[in-house]
Amino acid sequence: MKKNIVILGSTGSIGTQTLEVIDALDNNFNVTALAAGSNISLLSEQIEKYKPKSVSVKTNEDAQKLKFKYPDLNVYWGEEGLSELAQIEDANLIMVALSGKHGLKPTLKAIENKKDIALANKETLVMAGDMVVHKAKEYGVKILPVDSEHSAIFQCLNNQKALKYLILTSSGGPFRNKSYEEIKKADIKSVLNHPNWSMGKKITVDSATLMNKGLEVIEAHHLFNIDYDNIKVVIHPQSYIHSAVEYCDGSIIAQIGKPSMHIPIQYALTYPDRLEGIETESFDFTKAVKFEFYEPDYDKFPSLKLAIEAGKCGGTATTCLNAANEESVLSFLAGKIKFSDIYDITKKVYDSYKPILNPSIEQILSEDDKIRKQTIELINSIVGVK
Ligand SMILES: NC(=O)c1ccc[n+]([C@@H]2O[C@H](COP(=O)([O-])OP(=O)(O)OC[C@H]3O[C@@H](n4cnc5c(N)ncnc54)[C@H](OP(=O)(O)O)[C@@H]3O)[C@@H](O)[C@H]2O)c1
Fold first, then answer.
1. pLDDT for 148-196, tens place per residue?
2. pTM, full prediction
3. Using a 6 Å cutoff on CB, does residue 96 contact ligand 1?
4. Contact of 54 with 32, CB cutoff 8 Å
5. What atom in ligand 1 is closest to the CA of residue 203?
6. Ligand 1, closest atom to CA 215?
7. How far is the CA of 200 from the centre of ligand 1 (A)?
């Protein structure tokens, strides 16, 4: 039977790759609904190709234009539009491929409506991991990881009781071999030039600071119910080993393949089955030049350390970390602040914050809002905006 899928963030890096996977899987999926932000021309192409029943966009203005062009389509907009799509009655799976803070509310809505989730948006678990995982259990909803590291762990983990360590690999990002002084002066072009992965801008900047790996440690803690002390980060520049689990008997199981998001996306879509899909070429070990591994340099990449500290603190500490980091990254991408300011500002906001332990969802959302405003004020004071 065909699965009905909703893709939130269909015009982004994960969203477009999800549609490529669906194309390759031919008759296995109906694309029921698509949500985009502002890329209306790409969304229009997707509407014409996949014929969804409903779509959602960022603004009312774009929604009106689409309704005029496609009168039979249900068109929604804004935050509420995303939540509408997350609860569409005949949907079996919601792919949450939105960037940043936009993932949390529709994910919660999908859970409350008993829809299984393919979760690419790690910020959802960093903002409110305890709440999301608890709710998913309560409603009997599966959260299928799309992040390649978490998909790797999900594929290797067959005995939670015997689990000793999760080993999260990281390419080290574009500045692995640069000095601290060089990294501090990095411009937008070099930051966005990731060696192994082509991704959306926010995650690419996070990969350069290694905040991305820190967010992934927090994500792994929530998804796999494991203590922070049992999560190891290892730099593996080739990105062939996507992550691994170590069991109490010393056995280590790793998931290996070429760096491609198609494989984790496809596994989330077809789970528990494995189908022949878009990646048809076998991995050739004889051509995999090297498998190298290093300790992360926490002094050169202090964001990773800060994220793990926030994770260990718990409660809204990670909500604060996520909000301050995201606003700083957006300001960097807008050309307002320097690359090194991203960490400095995030750290300053984080250090002045008193977290709430065991917060309600309302508290998480209001703290998130408050911290974002505080971060923007701090940025404006640095760049001299009144
Ligand atoms: N890319 C990867 O390889 C990768 C790997 C692992 C995990 N992830 C995670 O997956 C998530 C998505 O990453 P990405 O790289 O695919 O990001 P991306 O390329 O920037 O795509 C983000 C998507 O969200 C949409 N969007 C943004 N703001 C919106 C709003 N206000 N309302 C509705 N839609 C909005 C964008 O629409 P428009 O473009 O139309 O504005 C786009 O479709 C992130 O959480 C990231 O950490 C990504």
1. 999 999 999 999 999 999 999 999 999 999 999 999 889 999 999 877 7
2. 0.97
3. no
4. yes
5. 47
6. 47
7. 6
- The amino acid at residue 341 is D
Nearest CA to ligand 1 atom 3: 199
Give the model confidence (pLDDT) of 61-88 as tens digits: 999 999 999 999 999 999 999 999 999 9
Quickly count: other Cβ atoms within 10 Å of residue 15's Cβ: 26
Among 13, 154, 262, residue to substitute to test ligand 1 (most atoms within 8 Å of Cβ): 13
Q: Domains plus CATH for the chain?
A: 3-121 (3.40.50.720), 150-383 (1.10.1740.10)
* CB count in 10 Å sphere of residue 52: 25
- Per-residue pLDDT band for 290 (boundaries 50, 70, 90) equals confident
Say how far apart CA 221 and CA 122 lie, in whole Å.
12
Tens of pLDDT, residue by residue over 312-351, are 999 999 999 999 999 999 999 999 999 999 999 999 999 9
Amino acid in the structure at residue 69: K
Q: Could you give the 3-state DSSP secondary structure of residue 29?
A: strand
Minimum-distance ligand 1 atom for the alpha carbon of 39 = 40
Q: Is 206 in the pocket of ligand 1 (CB under 6 A)?
A: no
Atom of ligand 1 nearest to the CA of 11: 43
